[in-house]
Specification:
Order of helices and strands: HHHHHHHHHHEHEHEHEH
CATH topology of the largest domain: NADH Oxidase
CATH architecture of the largest domain: 3-Layer(aba) Sandwich
CATH superfamily of the largest domain: NADH Oxidase
Bound molecules: flavin mononucleotide
Number of helices: 14
Shape: globular
Length: about 350
């Protein structure tokens, strides 16, 4: 259709129409940005830019509700509540009664999880150990006593008691100093020219095991890495983005960092997939460096046609949102690296007094 319009209407006229439309749009956005209600009208009737986000957030909420009754390899509710209980356990001073408001739903979820073959064993063990610790220190109200009985009925036999809070002094000492860390950071540069060499999945998995130590809100880790190591498919995925022109065909492995909006019951948390996904991806890129691999973050634009195309290729559900893409491979030694000057702390740090 676009091509047909381009053939029939003279170029000059198309440019004029475009310029007039842009002017009108600027006038409209000045008006519709006056308050939240008008802004919603603008995005309901004059622009579809938030179309996918609105629907995927709603579908995420629907999927969250459904997930409460269906245990898969990970339970979002269990992860969040066990995390909250751990925070209660380390509170200074620790309260005599805590988590009373959600201990019932937590043990009910735990019971379902234990009965399920799907939930991964380390998550089961973590939940079991933390609940065991909780019931051993909390003062017992009726609600807590009843929850404890449900917990004892369901307790996991192979729980070790190891997956519980510990003190800072028990952490491993840091084997790196500032300069060594700085070298690793300097070594990670965006690489766009790769050797023709397949990236082994075992290396990807190893890097992901390190990335997983990144912080995430309520320890939900609401992201997945969708990995393509087939070169042709990797190029196809890379071509779905806009920022790979000229080097898409050269990429041996593409990773799509995908955020799961079914991790949240409320809209207010819809941005967390991007924060958690990005924090873990930074660690992933650094881990790749230590394994001899290089990477380049690739922007994922929120453009409906591209979203549809990649969603189909990666077989994603509508509530799964692509946070970013990442090209991975073995850097060509003679491949160029942009200098990419960095802003100094004098520009970035604003001391607040
Ligand atoms: C979110 C994000 C999106 C990016 N998108 C692209 C992209 O589409 N194409 C590209 O060639 N580089 C992309 N980059 C890489 C940046 O250009 C690069 O990180 C920046 O210029 C700094 O260079 P450095 O990574 O070597 O420090 C992206 C980086 C980030 C963090």
């Amino acid at each position: 259709m676009k091509q047909l319009i381009k053939k029939v209407i003279p170029r000059q006229l198309i440019a004029e129409i475009k310029a007039r439309y842009e002017k009108l749009d600027i006038l409209m956005i000045r008006f519709f940005s006056k308050n939240g209600f008008l802004a919603s009208i603008y995005y309901a009737f004059f622009s579809q830019q938030f179309y996918r986000e609105h629907r995927s957030v709603l579908l995420g909420r629907v999927a969250y509700e459904a997930s409460l009754n269906r245990i898969t390899n990970s339970s979002i509710l269990l992860r969040r509540n066990i995390h909250r209980i751990e925070k209660g356990l380390i509170m200074q001073p620790r309260r005599e009664v805590f988590a009373e408001g959600y201990i019932r739903e937590t043990v009910d979820c735990f019971k379902k999880a234990i009965a399920s073959d799907s939930l991964c064993s380390s998550e089961k063990e973590w939940a079991s150990d933390v609940l065991q610790k909780y019931f051993s220190v909390v003062s017992h109200t009726t609600v807590i006593e009843n929850a404890k009985n449900t917990f004892l009925d369901a307790t996991l036999d192979e729980a070790t008691g190891n997956s519980v809070p510990y003190v800072h002094a028990d952490l491993p000492t840091c084997p790196l100093d500032y300069d060594q860390l700085l070298t690793l950071f300097k070594r990670r540069r965006s690489v766009r020219w790769f050797e023709e060499k397949t990236v082994d999945m075992s290396l990807i998995n190893k890097a992901v095991e390190a990335a997983t130590y990144a912080p995430s809100a309520c320890n939900r880790q609401p992201y997945e890495y969708h990995v393509v190591t087939d070169k042709n498919l990797a190029s196809e995925v890379a071509n779905c983005a806009m920022g790979t022109v000229g080097f898409a065909e050269n990429i041996p492995c593409m990773i799509a960092i995908v955020g799961n909006l079914d991790a949240y019951p409320a809209e207010r948390d819809r941005h967390i997939i991007y924060i958690d996904g990005a924090l873990a991806s930074m660690q992933l890129m650094l881990a790749f460096e230590t394994l001899g691999l290089s990477s380049c973050s690739i922007n994922w634009p929120d453009i409906e046609l591209r979203e549809k195309a990649l969603m189909k290729k990666l077989k994603l559900a509508y509530h799964q949102r692509i946070v970013m893409l990442m090209a991975v491979g073995y850097a060509k030694p003679d491949g160029g690296i942009p200098f990419s000057q960095k802003k100094g702390s004098n520009l970035l740090v604003k001391e607040v007094k």
